Amino acid sequence: MDFAWDETDEAYRAELREVIADLPRDWWENYAPHGPASPQVMDNARGFNAELARRDLVVRHWPSAYGGQDADAWKQIVISEEMWSLGEPRSSLYLGANWAGPAIMKFGTEAQKQKYLRAIAEAKLLWCQGFSEPEAGTDLGNMKTRADPVPGGYVLNGSKVWTSYAARADIMFLLARIGGKGKGGVSCFLIPTDTPGIEIRPIRGVHSEWDFNEVFFSDAFVPSDALLGEEGNGWAIVQTIIHYERIGAARYEKSARGLDHLVGILKARGQWDDPVCRAECAAARSLVEAARLLTYRVIDGRAKQREPGAETYLARYAMIEADHAVANITSTWLPDLLIDGADGHARAQFNSAITAGIAAGAAEVQLNMVSGRHLGLPRGA
């Protein structure tokens, strides 16, 4: 692997930073600490994303036929690093750009591609993901939400939980069951969140009042063209999505810049002279860089058209460890920064770390995948 960024990568990063420079002046104080699903960030994202789209910055790594510039896969991680280092000012546009779009490219009809891919490239849609359920959690094989075939489409009944962005998103990427058991019958749908029969209720969390939502489906009708792929073939789509989703958000870069911010404060306060403090910061930095390099390994394979493997799960778990390590620096050495209004940058990183082992795949699930697909251990070992 060549570890140096090329000129096109650096130029792309510079263009992104020009748009970032126009974020609200109080970004760290009143936007980032509340997370990318907050009303402040989601409302601001509409205009921010429109400017990204005006400059053709959203999906340069996509084919030109769908609004991209046929650039290599490294452009995806460049924009992810720049955006996530700030707490993701795109809000959930990144879901569309990172994994919903690629899934539609691979499994969608031509009509679906024309409808959704251009809209993502033009930053017109904010997405949410209807996967987890109250009695199944992240065990998608046990989900119960049903999509019953009726003339002209399907009727949805069931519920989802922990659905980030749902309250203000435009489109949900939904998993529902059309018959079958376990992984059989799982099907994917692309549905507007304002579809009659869909009710969204917020769940207040310790890290955010707006991040989590419950979603209820009560005889919600969706037309046949809302189905992505074939009936009952959703598990193959899920497997494609996972490898894009797990490392699509460059959380390690948010941790890295958050750590730099904390070290500056520790030095200013004279705490940097404590060898234990320095050792803990060094350990956190090593975890951040391990997560970065493991992510780059995945992107390198993608750029070389290799099939994804267990390294995706290794990279995802490394990000969780890095997030937690930096958050622990704050809570151990600088706990006063976590008081509301004290330091928005520190609070934003800490709040994000609270969900690091849950969002985009629970930590325990990643370890299970590593044990089986990387270490080759038998189930239950």
Automatic annotation (TrEMBL):
Domain Acyl-CoA oxidase/dehydrogenase middle: 128-219
Domain Acyl-CoA dehydrogenase/oxidase C-terminal residues, every copy: 232-371
Cofactor: FAD
Domain Acyl-CoA dehydrogenase/oxidase N-terminal: residue ranges: 46-122
Gene Ontology MF annotations: flavin adenine dinucleotide binding; oxidoreductase activity, acting on the CH-CH group of donors
GO terms under cellular component: plasma membrane
Pfam families attached to this UniProt entry: Acyl-CoA_dh_1, Acyl-CoA_dh_M, Acyl-CoA_dh_N
Keyword list, A-Z: FAD, Flavoprotein, Oxidoreductase
InterPro entries with a match to the protein in the record: Acyl-CoA_Oxase/DH_mid-dom, Acyl-CoA_Oxase/DH_mid-dom_sf, AcylCo_DH-like_C, AcylCo_DH/oxidase_C, AcylCoA_DH/ox_N, AcylCoA_DH/ox_N_sf, AcylCoA_DH/oxidase_NM_dom_sf, Mycobact_Acyl-CoA_DH
Protein family according to the UniProt entry: Belongs to the acyl-CoA dehydrogenase family.
Protein name according to UniProt: Alkylation response protein AidB-like acyl-CoA dehydrogenase
Taxon lineage: Bacteria, Pseudomonadati, Pseudomonadota, Alphaproteobacteria, Sphingomonadales
